[in-house]
């Protein structure tokens, strides 16, 4: 087992990793930018090193500074968390060349799933359907028009690298296709340093279903069930739950098929450690592979709550060379879990970020209520990074109890000094369609439209 781990991240995920390390009696090293000097992960770690200025390009994305910090503190391994360098195969290779274990998939597996276009080809070889679209990167406007004509509008233009809704545009005609093509490329270059895009058929009223996987270094891969991540705004997730109401209420037989498809894709890539295989499901029960997220996910707690399996702990054990002690038959699901991402944003102002100083902070408690956060009263949310304050996760014996518990917990959560998404998320918990499990990825846009928005604003 490792003696010391460097956490190459910030915010709530850094806190989450440090807690898992403490329970395994592993010492931790936090790295931080100048603006994060007072962040919670810096205070909780055994050691802390400043690695640069506020901009991620001058701190959390600097491989040389991370490796220097690791060597100075003599760590055995680096945990990248999510975002930043977590899916960077070169970073994984540099770690290994310096005799530092990278807690995540191997560079080989990441290269096999290096971008979404390559992943689609691998999924097809594994016998898993992908949405109709381009066979690879779309090089120019002419090719884009020809592909759109062949598969029919609407289409989705997507960056081959990255995620979080960046570098994605929907096109309904030639004019919006050309505009979206260039906009997506520019955004992708700015966000990921890679302007390449591909095109696929846009599935209307889609459901976003993802499967959590774990793979050890002995070739064993299992899945831990699904999460429904369809409640999104601008392709960024806002609420996640497990199990999926779509699969529970409408397509029960689909659950086993999607789980097995995820494992086949992971096996084809010889995947190791934790990862997520994402799918889109239409109203007729057809499912299509989207991508593999080669890291721990923001929404991993809902899987932990319904399976009782600590995913970050498993990541560390696998990276240390331990074989999985869990077989597919050992995975049992109990109850229903829901997660709300609490963001410092104005949901009624186009979700504009609301950085600033948290004046008062009081988090909810009670049975089956969990809060993963790095925030506290007096903490200043910097404008430099994403706006997530933390995650509120609740569990119930069934979906109805989980929704009622989340509604109560959101009402109990008090944060002043910045705007948050909590009031809007509470309105979702009270929405009749959400409570019935009748929703897709366009749910938030519908909720913020016309009379329904006016009703929500009146209530809040």
Q: Into which percent range does the helicity of residues fall?
A: 25-40%
CATH superfamily of the largest domain: ATP-grasp fold, B domain
Mean pLDDT: 94
* Terminal residue distance: 50 Å
Strand content: 25-35%
Tally of helical runs: 17
Strand order of the largest sheet: 13-12-9-10-11-14-21-19
Tell me about the largest β-sheet.
Answer: 8 strands, antiparallel
CATH hierarchy: architecture of the largest domain: 2-Layer Sandwich
Brief digest:
This protein has 460 residues and is an alpha+beta fold.
Secondary-structure map with pairings?
Layout: E1 4-7, H1 11-23, E2 27-33, H2 40-44, E3 47-52, H3 63-73, E4 77-79, H4 89-97, E5 101-102, H5 107-112, H6 116-125, H7 141-151, E6 155-159, E7 168-171, H8 174-192, E8 197-201, E9 207-215, E10 221-233, E11 236-242, H9 245-249, H10 254-268, E12 273-281, E13 287-293, H11 300-307, H12 311-319, E14 336-343, E15 345-346, E16 352-353, E17 356-357, E18 360-362, E19 369-373, E20 380-381, E21 388-396, H13 399-412, E22 414-416, H14 422-430, H15 432-436, H16 443-447, H17 450-459
Parallel strand pairs: 1-2, 1-4, 2-3, 4-5
Antiparallel strand pairs: 6-7, 6-8, 9-10, 9-12, 10-11, 11-14, 12-13, 14-21, 15-16, 17-20, 18-22, 19-21
What does this structure look like?
The radius of gyration is 21 Å and the shape is globular. The protein has an eight-stranded antiparallel beta sheet with strand order 13-12-9-10-11-14-21-19. Strands 3-2-1-4-5 form a five-stranded parallel beta sheet, sandwiched between helices. A three-stranded antiparallel beta sheet has the order 7-6-8, covered by helices on one side. The chain is built from 17 helices and 22 strands. Helix content is 36%, strand content 25%. It has 460 residues and is α+β, with helices and mostly antiparallel strands. The termini are far apart. The chain has helices at 11-23, 40-44, 63-73, 89-97, 107-112, 116-125, 141-151, 174-192, 245-249, 254-268, 300-307, 311-319, 399-412, 422-430, 432-436, 443-447, 450-459; strands spanning 4-7, 27-33, 47-52, 77-79, 101-102, 155-159, 168-171, 197-201, 207-215, 221-233, 236-242, 273-281, 287-293, 336-343, 345-346, 352-353, 356-357, 360-362, 369-373, 380-381, 388-396, 414-416. α7 crosses α8 (174-192) and α13 (399-412) packs antiparallel against α14.
């Amino acid at each position: 087992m490792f003696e010391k781990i460097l956490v190459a991240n910030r915010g709530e995920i850094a806190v989450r990793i440090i807690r898992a390390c403490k329970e395994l009696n592993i010492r931790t090293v936090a790295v931080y930018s100048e603006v994060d000097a007072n962040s919670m992960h810096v205070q909780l770690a055994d050691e802390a090193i400043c690695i640069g200025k506020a901009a991620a390009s001058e701190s959390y994305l600097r491989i040389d500074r991370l490796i220097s910090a690791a060597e100075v503190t003599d760590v055995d391994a680096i945990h990248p968390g999510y975002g930043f360098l977590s899916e960077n195969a070169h970073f994984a290779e540099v770690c290994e060349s310096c005799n530092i274990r990278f807690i995540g998939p191997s560079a080989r597996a990441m290269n096999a799933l290096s971008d979404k276009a390559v992943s689609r080809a691998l999924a097809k070889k594994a016998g898993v359907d992908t949405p109709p679209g381009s066979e690879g990167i779309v090089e120019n406007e002419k090719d884009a028009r020809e592909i759109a004509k062949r598969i029919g509008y609407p289409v989705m233009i997507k960056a081959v690298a990255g995620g979080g809704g960046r570098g994605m545009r929907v096109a309904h005609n030639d004019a919006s296709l050309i505009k979206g093509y260039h906009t997506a490329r520019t955004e992708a270059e700015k966000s990921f340093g890679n302007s390449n895009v591909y095109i696929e058929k846009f599935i209307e009223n889609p459901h976003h279903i993802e499967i959590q996987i774990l793979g050890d270094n002995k070739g064993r891969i299992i899945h831990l069930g699904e999460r429904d991540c369809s409640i999104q705004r601008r392709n960024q997730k806002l609420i996640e739950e497990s199990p999926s109401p779509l699969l529970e209420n409408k397509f029960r037989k689909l659950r086993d098929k999607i789980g097995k498809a995820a494992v086949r894709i992971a096996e084809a890539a010889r995947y190791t450690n934790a990862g997520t295989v994402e799918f889109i499901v239409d109203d007729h029960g057809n499912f299509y592979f989207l991508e593999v997220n080669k890291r721990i996910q923001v929404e991993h707690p809902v899987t932990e709550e319904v399976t009782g399996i600590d995913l970050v702990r498993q990541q560390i054990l696998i990276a240390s060379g331990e074989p999985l002690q869990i077989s597919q038959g050992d995975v049992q699901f109990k109850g229903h879990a829901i997660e709300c991402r609490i963001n410092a944003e104005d949901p009624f102002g186009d979700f504009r970020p609301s950085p600033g100083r948290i004046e008062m902070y009081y988090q909810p408690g009670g049975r089956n209520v969990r809060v993963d956060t790095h925030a506290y009263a007096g903490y200043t949310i910097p404008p430099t990074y994403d706006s997530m304050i933390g995650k509120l996760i609740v569990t119930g014996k069934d979906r109805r109890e989980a929704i009622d518990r989340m509604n109560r917990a959101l009402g109990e959560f008090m944060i002043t000094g910045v705007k948050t998404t909590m009031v809007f998320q509470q309105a979702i918990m009270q929405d009749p369609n959400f409570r019935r499990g009748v929703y897709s990825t366009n749910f938030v846009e519908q909720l913020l439209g016309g009379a329904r928005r006016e009703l929500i604003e009146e209530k809040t």
